[in-house]
Amino acid sequence: MEKEIGVLEKQMDKYNVPQPTRSPKSVKVTTSANDKSLVNDQFIFENIRDGCIAAIEKNLRNAIAILNNDSLRVMFIDFVKEEADIMLQCCKYGKLKGWMPIYPTYKAD
Questions:
Q1: How far apart are CA 83 and CA 87, in angstroms?
Q2: How far apart are CA 66 and CA 19, in angstroms?
Q3: 45 near 94, Cβ under 8 Å?
Q4: For residue range 40-56, what is the model confidence (pLDDT) as tens digits?
Q5: Does pTM surpass 0.85?
Q6: CA torsion, points 28, 35, 46, 24, in degrees to nearest 10?
């Protein structure tokens, strides 16, 4: 993600797009929020998977929306490819752990 941030910031500078303020690198958390019963491995996996899906969708929409700038379109397509690779690895891990949703099989009549 840091690589994509750097690439996007360079493009924003190149086209003089104002950048939002950065979020803090770390946040202090109270001890009650560190309760391990609140967050487990499957919860973290599902959040990462959902984040990958959202990133793929957003970057793909950006690539489709940019019709007149080849370099930006290629940049977003590269982001989609990288995120898809991460998603595939995430799905393999989720299957291994038994965390992937199981859908009913469709039987043709």
A1: 6
A2: 19
A3: yes
A4: 899 999 999 999 999 99
A5: no
A6: 0
